[in-house]
Design brief:
Two copies of one chain form a homodimer. Chain A is α/β, with parallel strands linked by helices. The first copy, chain A, has 14 helices and 22 strands.
């Protein structure tokens, strides 16, 4: 075995992480010998840690040892207590505002200007919004026909995206938190990749009315089909085909143009993380985020339960007090939401996270926030709220990949950058997803599904700035349509799972 | 206009319902003249009702008049207060056990015996369960290939059904109510229409593990594919195709046989109801339910918020005290669930219900429970609990069509009978849905989508027992595969929206 066997992240850490599976009895550092076999990405104690002693990684407290731990021991998820999360009332702001961000090597990209203004599109899709799940069966059949019969006539259109979801009816539409799913669906309808063309399919009796979804002015016959008004299934399909044809003809006129980075909105998310996610993939994404922000671009990061334990560090990066206070409020809201359901943030890590060496949510969160890079946080958004600033933005969403994805999508992201340790074949139909893996082994396992491997950071084959800049260039390649993501190539699209914390009826 | 213009349901009622749109000034009954134009299905006051006076339909209190109502006035949803719901602590049981049910004209049907015992199948599908949404993108691509390349080789298999859902990860898997979605997915995997063949697709790092979904014994390589263990996308598709081929070959041996009605499980649901639903479609379904039960069959009805206001009447039909108490408990659970989200049962009716003449949830519920017919209630099931008895069973689910459908489906229904007033093109991929409309106008609007029109009950062209028996025969025709439902014919399938009252992370 060549090169280092373990990785120490912060000088204060009393653990290191195994870069590869290590047998018991391996000398990993001078005087430090593994006492058990250590799985890849798992932690090894650098010193004896007595019961109750602090376990430190990333220079922060992951938790306290439940029992005595000896130098060279494998430290896994059963062995430490979860510490109290950072206090939200005493958070500071503005004490860590980095201004010397790295300079981006490229300052423009090729996108579709949005007729409504705002961030530009990265693809040219006909998006078909639905008010309610009831219409999805018919719409899916019609979309198949549109793809077969209409799309080939419009070579400048990249595809047709039905926005199917399970909200819209059978829900408490006036409940306290109902504004969250409603806002998400309202924003999805106007995603920049849909070029300002609205096509809305409703049933005619649902609670989420077309007027509520797109506004009374736009809920007009040019944009809206109500299935209850059509003559049978054949009438429905005819109406859908006819409207799609009209919209496709207009979308077919769209062309890319050279745009500044300030027209680009990127979402950062991670899923299926391992203990390397916070060392390779997420820091590379963070470096790319810094380059984007330095060039005038806008980057979202999200996932409340995965920033909760590092939120004090984010507070210090908020540009003003209201931003920091809103960040704290989003954490409080989610703490209460979980508590009402008899859960807390410790419910977040998955069996895969644990197999991947993440001992608890503190360790996962410290890795997760690395994707935000180092730039100041200029805005904090509640779920479904749309960005109004440029720069690094915290958009509160659940951490669940399947729900965070559509939430970020609704805010208008042109590309999602998705960091994974264990691997997930995740994709979104309405925007390209660049999958970034944390280890070379993952890329070897899924060579056709992983778009970008951050593993060379671990092996020392490349530095973090080098990989971050490569990822930045990859983002611009995909955003500009010069490259397809793996998910696009194989048509891998996950459902639009809309966050609905309100009850159904 | 021929025949009666209005319909009075119960001798004690002080309102009638307009059978067709009526202009102001129409004499609808001797001495009763409409004072405003009355939309079809809406209510007309038979007498002067002072402010605070009771408005009675179905012989029950719909609510109290908010202001004076004059004889001949149109009574719509803004005009009455919602009464207190029936008290759950003082409910009686066993005081109304009907024993003289009508005799069924047919006593057998043709179904697929379930190798595991229990209710029989009505279709022969390869069902593909998923542990987590992450795998859906890949699975959907593979299913398309299976349908194209494999299915034509197995003529006795009716289709391939992926059970995609948004549960499985990013959820609080140990939360208080997490057993509900988990139970639903566990049961769906073993639906009788899947012939006992388990095929499970997991990712490999999710919280809902394959062992949790199908049990440790069945989570074996014969039934389980983990995408993280495959070599890239091509490896995943290869593994999926290979397993599907093996399962399809076994399913291809299944044949229908003549079975007693006791092997049949039918679900009753309504959606997009109007004020006729409780007069034509739901009572016809109730009559068919009585015939099924009299013949030894089993019928489920559901939808908590749509029985809440008539629950005292259902209590009287419970065969014993524990059954009644469990019914009350399910109502209490849902009352609290809604309250926690800042809502109550009044959130149930939709704009379409109101357009269709349903003034509030009391009126909707009284129509809704008519689909249970008149037989005794032998069992009450919590969400996701599977039936253990034969006869009429109350299976608690949300009323939302999109959520009630998969909930009933998970319990093993062979056919769902779906009553609609306003019309919804609803369908389930794993079991046929018979759509029954309440009015002739609806069938005229959607002639190809409505399977059965109960409108002749309103026009006097047929009696309730005649239509109920016709519907009973239709259910057996579809269950036996001699007839396809409209949803099957057009491939209209709604998503599997799994009820998850627990938080996500």
């Amino acid at each position: 075995m060549e090169g280092p066997l373990v990785l120490k992240i912060h000088p204060n850490d009393n653990v290191v992480v195994a870069l590869q599976p290590l047998p018991a009895g391996t000398t990993v550092l001078p005087g430090i010998v593994t006492r058990q076999p250590i799985p890849q990405a798992h932690k090894i104690a650098l010193v004896d840690i007595p019961a109750g002693g602090a376990i430190l990684r990333y220079g922060v407290l992951l938790g306290h040892a439940k029992a005595d731990i000896a130098q060279g021991d494998w430290i896994h998820e059963g062995m430490l207590d979860l510490p109290t999360p950072p206090d939200l009332d005493s958070m500071r702001w503005g004490t860590h505002l980095v201004t010397d961000l790295p300079a981006p090597p490229v300052s423009s990209w090729e996108g579709y200007r949005n007729p409504a203004g705002g961030f530009a599109g990265t693809r040219n899709y006909l998006g078909i919004s639905t008010t309610v799940q009831c219409v999805s069966g018919v719409l899916n059949v019609a979309v198949e026909r549109m793809r077969r019969e209409l799309l080939p006539r419009y070579p400048h259109v990249d595809g047709i995206v039905p926005i199917n979801h399970t909200y819209g009816c059978g829900v408490a539409i006036n409940a306290r938190e109902a504004h969250i799913p409603i806002r998400i669906l309202q924003s999805l309808a106007r995603h920049p990749n849909f070029g300002g063309e609205l096509m809305v399919v409703g049933l005619g009796c649902e609670k989420l009315t077309p007027e509520m979804l797109v506004g009374a002015e736009d809920a007009n016959p040019d944009n809206l089909i109500l299935l209850q008004e059509q003559k049978g299934f054949e009438g429905m399909v005819h109406a859908l085909m006819e409207m799609a044809d009209r919209k496709l003809a207009r979308l077919n006129e769209r062309r890319r143009e050279s745009l500044p980075l300030s027209d680009l909105l990127i979402g950062m998310q991670c899923g299926g993380s391992d203990a390397f996610s916070g060392v390779s993939a997420n820091p590379a994404a963070g470096y790319a985020a810094d380059l984007l922000v330095a060039g005038g671009g806008t980057v979202l990061f999200s996932e409340v339960t995965e920033v909760r334990d590092g939120v004090h560090l984010l507070g210090e990066r908020c540009v003003d007090e209201p931003t920091m206070r809103k960040l704290a409020d989003e954490m409080r809201w989610y703490d209460r939401y979980l508590e009402a359901g008899g859960a807390d943030r410790s419910a977040n890590p998955t069996p895969g996270n644990k197999k991947g060496g993440l001992a608890n949510i503190v360790e996962k969160a410290m890795g997760s926030i690395a994707k935000s890079g180092s730039s100041p946080i200029v805005e904090v958004l509640s779920p479904g709220e749309r960005p109004t600033k440029h720069g690094l933005i915290y958009a509160a969403t659940p951490a669940s990949d399947i729900v965070c994805g559509p939430s970020q999508l609704s805010l208008g992201i042109g590309v999602q950058v998705f960091m994974t340790g264990r691997g997930t074949p995740y994709g979104l139909a309405a925007a390209p997803v660049i999958k970034v893996c944390s280890r070379n082994e993952m890329q070897a396992q899924w060579p056709d599904l992983i778009d970008f491997c951050a593993g060379p950071i671990l092996t020392g084959e490349a530095t973090l700035p080098e990989m971050g800049e490569r990822l930045f260039r990859e983002i611009l390649e995909v955003a500009s349509g010069r490259k397809q993501s793996a998910a696009e190539r194989f048509h891998l699209y996950n459902d639009i799972a809309v966050f609905n914390p309100a009850p159904i009826t």
